[in-house]
Amino acid sequence: MFRISKIAIEGFKSFGSDQIFVFPKEVAGFYLIGGVNKVEPDLGPNGSGKSSFLDSLVFCLFGKTARGLRAKDVANRSGQFETSVCMEFEIDGRLYGLTRTWNPNSLVLDEPGQSPKLVEQYQVDALIGTNYDLFLKTVLFGQFQVFFFDENPADKLRVMSSILELTTWDNATARSRSLGKELHDISSREQLEVAKLDGEFAALDGQRAKVNEMRISFETERSEQMVYRKAEIETIKSNVSSLSETEAKHKITIDAINTKLSKKGTLLEILLRSKKKNSEIQIEIQKAIGILEERLFQANNKDEKISSISGPCPFCDQAVPASHKKRISKLVEEERNGIREELKMLRIQEEGNAVKSKEIEKGEKDIQKEFTAFKKSLEDLEERTNNIKTKIAVQNESLSRLQLALKDIKSQANPYTDNLARLTKKHGETSVLLETKRAKIRTLNSDVANCEFWAEKFKEIRLWVVEQALTELEMHVNNALVELGLIGYTVRFDIEKPRADGSGVIKSFHVLISNKANSLESIPWESWSGGETQRLRLAGTIGIADLISSRHGFFPTLEFWDEPTAHLSQEGIEDLLVFLGTRAKTRNKQVWLVDHRSLNAGDFDGVITIVKDEDGSHFQQPQPRTAVRRQLSTSNSS
User: Fold this and answer.
1) How does pLDDT run across 35-56, given as a tens digit for each residue?
2) What are the C-alpha distances in Å from 569 to residues 266, 564, 576, 581, 591?
3) Higher pLDDT among residues 599 and 221, named by residue
4) Which residues, 6 or more positions from 356, have their beta carbon under 8 angstroms from its beta carbon?
5) What is the 3-state secondary structure (H, E, C) of 406-443?
6) DSSP string covering 482-513, please?
7) Parallel, antiparallel, or unpaired for β 117-118 and 106-110?
8) How far apart are CA 601 and CA 603, in angstroms?
9) With 90 as the cut, is the pLDDT of residue 435 above it?
10) Residue 22 class from Cβ within 10 Å (0-12 exposed, 13-18 middle, 19+ buried)?
11) Cα(146)–Cα(134) distance, rounded to whole angstroms?
12) Of 73, 359, 416, 435, most Cβ neighbours within 10 A?
């Protein structure tokens, strides 16, 4: 709660040297401030410094007077004194000091437990809980102020807007609409993006269908190639199988011829043995030689066969490892070396039996002819067998080549698969992006609707706040009317007025007054005159002050009324004094009345006189300024 306890004035308007005024310690009381003008006695109490005293309060707190004067306009005209106003005040039991000077300009705040410091005006406003405009409507009611009822309708509306802080709701409405428009613009841009993405999405659908068709065509062609290659492979396998069967038959024939050759040798042996024992020996030698030669021949053939194997084994149709071929070739070579060694020994014996051999040549030649014939047949078959093996090898080579080609066809990547996957991925991403943007648009549209909803609701709240405030203001004003002696009078406020052409309403602020004498007809404030007008003006001022206190939680312990009795009858003055005295007690505050009239001192709890002489204005019992400063400093230090 804000309460002024002392003020020290120097060089301010009519105040010259240091002047200190200590407010009564009693919280509640009704006090009169009178004046004596010794410099110009004909003026009576006018010009004594009463209003200057009130202006000093406003100047100290806000840097200007109730009429907006500041700087050199508030300085004492003698130019002998520094312009300075020092105030001591309490807020919730804590004592503060505030000093404002001009030339040089300064504003110093002395807080409890801290060193004095320079401050800005907004810091003072925040500390005391009010500002200049509200102070003039709740604490100081100057004689030159325009009271609430005197203001034009538009200014009344602005005052109410300031008191009720309606800009909060106006700004909220504007912000809601601005945000709604911003969100609507974003939604429109997003919808354009969605339309563009829809086109891209449709194009991707067409591209995917075309690429997928090409992919399927590729797979169809691949399948046809695989069928063709497999048919070729099966044909070659059939040829190889047929050739293998022929080769097997030739082998059987060769075995049969070898058997016949063996039999012929046996016959020759029997013949030679029967003719002559030596011939038998010779035959045995020749037979052994023939056998060894045959073995050697077979071994050579075997080696050739092994060397000629280039594909799978002709018997088992399995691949022949090189290591296996090398091992077999080594064994064959070892066999041939053994045969050669035996042949060498037999030929030594043959040389020894040469004579004996001649004797059996005739029989040998006969058998040899048959043997040669069989031999030739055997060679023919072996040649044909070798040709078959060559053909088999060629067919196997073709088979391997076709199988590799088939494998390549199977493993060949479809050139359209990756492109289709890329398009499918982009298609999916575009689909997700579309759904995300559509969801965002739905959210934005919902937010736009919410903004529009709250824009209307903030307007409704603003209207409700105004309606509630008007109801409260009417209550305060009408209560004051009764206490000011205007029994039967009623004030009503209206913020809308029909247009003359009936096209709508004009938002303004109208004061309508009715009383029993006029059959309660509502008459505009501007139509009233005389003493009633002053009482109505005072009631409106009191009502707006009480509304501000209620709405802002600012309950000052002081009120100053400067010449409020103007235009009042004696009865009106008496009603006003009773009202202000009662207000001081019921509101638990000090009410100060400044007036030039000779009022009954008995109506007041105290009378303070401001005297103006050649030294300037001063209080009848001033205290030295240094004493106040000392008291301020001592109080704050404690």
Assistant:
1) 999 999 888 888 899 999 999 9
2) 179, 12, 10, 18, 21
3) 221
4) 278, 279, 281, 282
5) HHHHHHCCCCCHHHHHHHHHHHHHHHHHHHHHHHHHHH
6) HHTT-TT-EEEEEEEEE-TTSS-EEEEEEEEE
7) antiparallel
8) 5
9) yes
10) middle
11) 13
12) 416
Q: What angle (nearest 5°) sits at the alpha carbon of residue 259, between those of residues 256 and 265?
A: 145
Q: If you average pLDDT over every residue of the chain, what do you get?
A: 86
Contact status, residue 79 vs residue 10, Cβ threshold 8 Å: no
Q: What is the 3-state secondary structure (H, E, C) of 181-219?
A: HHHHHHHHHHHHHHHHHHHHHHHHHHHHHHHHHHHHHHH
Return the DSSP state at 72.
Answer: G
Give the Cα separation of 238 and 259 in Å (integer): 32
Amino acid letter for position 218: F
- The predicted model gives 368-396 an average pLDDT of 88
The values of phi and psi at residue 484, to 5°, are: -90, 5
For 597-606, the pLDDT digits (tens) are 777 756 789 9
Question: Do β-strands 590-594 and 558-562 pair in parallel, antiparallel, or remain unpaired?
Answer: parallel
Owner of token pair 């012929």: 264
For 307, counting Cβ atoms within 10 Å of its Cβ (0-12 exposed, 13-18 middle, 19+ buried), the class is exposed
Give CA–CA dist 110/124, Å, rounded. 11
Asked which of 23-37, 119-133, 614-628 is least confident by mean pLDDT, the reply is 614-628
Cα(460)–Cα(360) distance, rounded to whole angstroms? 147
Least confident residue range of 12-26, 333-347, 562-576, 624-638:
624-638
- As given in the structure block, the two tokens for residue 129 are 């809980």
> What is the Cα–Cα distance from 339 to 334, expressed in whole angstroms?
9
